[in-house]
Amino acid sequence: MKQLLILGAGTSGTMMSNHLRKTLPKKDWQITVVDHQENHYYQPGFLFLPFDIYKTSQLKKSIKKFIPKGVNLIQEKVELIDKDQDQVSLKNGEKLKYDILIIATGTDIAPREIEGMLGDHWQKSVFDFYTFDGARNLRNKLRKWDGGKLVVHISEMPIKCPVAPLEFAFLADSYFKNKKMRDKVDITFVTPVSGAFTKPKASKELNYLLEQKNIKIVPDFNIEKVDADNNKIVDYGGMEVEYDLLVTVPTNMGDDVIERSGFGDELNFVPTDKATLQTKVKDNIFAIGDATNIPASKAGSVAHFEAEILTENIQRYINGQELKQEFDGHANCFVETGDGKAILIDFNYTHEPTTGHYPFPNFGPLSLLKESHMNHLGKLAFRWIYWNMLITGKHIPFVSATMDTDGKDLEPEQEITH
After folding, report:
1. What is the pLDDT of residues 234-293, one digit of tens each?
2. What is d(CA 330, CA 350) in angstroms, rounded to the nearest whole number?
3. Which of 308, 309, 304 is nearest to 323 (CA)?
4. Secondary structure of the chain: what % helix, strand, coil (to 5)?
5. pTM, full prediction
6. How much is the pLDDT for 367?
7. CA distance linking residue 248 with residue 165, whole number of Å
8. Contact at 8 Å (CB) between 165 and 177?
9. Cα separation of the two ends of the chain
């Protein structure tokens, strides 16, 4: 019996276990998933939790619920990957041999990377919303907050779901308007990039929305430290932004096991071929989702598209066939803009977000790069799709893993940095 080992039971790892259990012969392949967590979180919902749009019970379920029958689940921390011995060591001392390894260990916030971000003020006047606890604590803070200077801040790129901080600013505008206290809240969006988003065309549209909603933007802000005693953040050029409430996205980093195992870049992301998803560590090691260093968005939609392509490449690797260089960086994201509207963006390695229709070229019903209530409904419907289709490995009809160019107002191809 050959062994296929998956590290991580988040979105990517769970999807891969479901896809591969359906495709690999049970008499030939034992599939094992390792993750120390008890719960699987619907991470896109962390954005809505601070504004009381979702309840905590809607965002977490037992990991065991989504691991398919015939797959072995080990709930333990991973200590080390020994690529030369094709072996993984667990925290409890157990050692697991593998024929194929899939790294799906994701990314996490690392507030320790920014001077002054952690301290007595953490989760009191300085919050994140990229974790379940952070989003829940921020919800409790906002329920009682009287207003003041709200700063929404990105520490550095890349981050998971790059549009989420913008969405937070838009939803904050809507939230305080509904509470009849928008005039008491000064919202500022502080980012290390030169505009609202990493893609120029989408950035132009989103900058307009920030202006329309009276949200100030401070671009090109490379944070040096949080000065919590004086309620301000300071960048390396000496610029300062004052806050009463700081909602920050700390540095995002891959799992520490990648560093301990002696491979990975400076942020612990795994060097990975951007088209095949085979790592550059060893031929029998593959990586998916946020764990990779490929120049695609660290978003759930990207992991979804990667999973379909990686499943086929795992089969081709087992059969001794050349891997398909098929993944094109396809990302598809709803950008919540508040007041019951959202924008949908669809792009890949070579095409920026553009106008058009999705998923059907001529009539949508979703509009690309335009605000609409239909897009907002699509964003809300995605929670059901996630729990019932996406992580269980079911194909979502009319949604292709690679970017469909039909019905889009495309410009000439160019290499895009995410």
Report:
1. 999 999 999 999 999 999 999 999 999 999 999 999 999 999 999 999 999 999 999 999
2. 9
3. 309
4. 30, 30, 40
5. 0.93
6. 87
7. 8
8. no
9. 40
Distance CA(76)–CA(94), nearest Å, equals 10
Residue 49 makes CB contacts below 8 A (sequence gap 6+) with 55, 56, 59, 129, 132, 135, 136, 138, 139
Q: Residues 6 or more apart from 42 whose CB is under 8 A from it?
A: 58, 59, 60, 383, 386, 387
Contact 349, 295 (CB under 8 A): yes
Q: Which amino acid is at 163?
A: V
Give yes or no for a contact between 141 and 187, defined as CB atoms under 8 angstroms apart.
no
Q: Report d(CA 174, CA 403) in Å as an integer.
A: 32
Q: What percent of the chain has pLDDT over 70?
A: 98
Cα dihedral angle (85, 86, 89, 94), rounded to 10 degrees?
A: -100
3-state secondary structure 214-237: CCEEECCCCEEEEEHHHCEEEECC
Those residues whose C-beta lies under 8 Å from the C-beta of residue 211, and which sit 6 or more positions away, are none
Residue 39 dihedral angles phi and psi, to the nearest 5°: -115, 145
- Which two structure tokens, joined as six digits, stand for 185? 């809240």
Q: Apex CA 97: angle with CA 92 and CA 101, to 5°? A: 105
* Pair of tokens at residue 141: 């803070």
What is the C-alpha to C-alpha distance for residues 310 and 323, in angstroms, rounded to an integer? 9
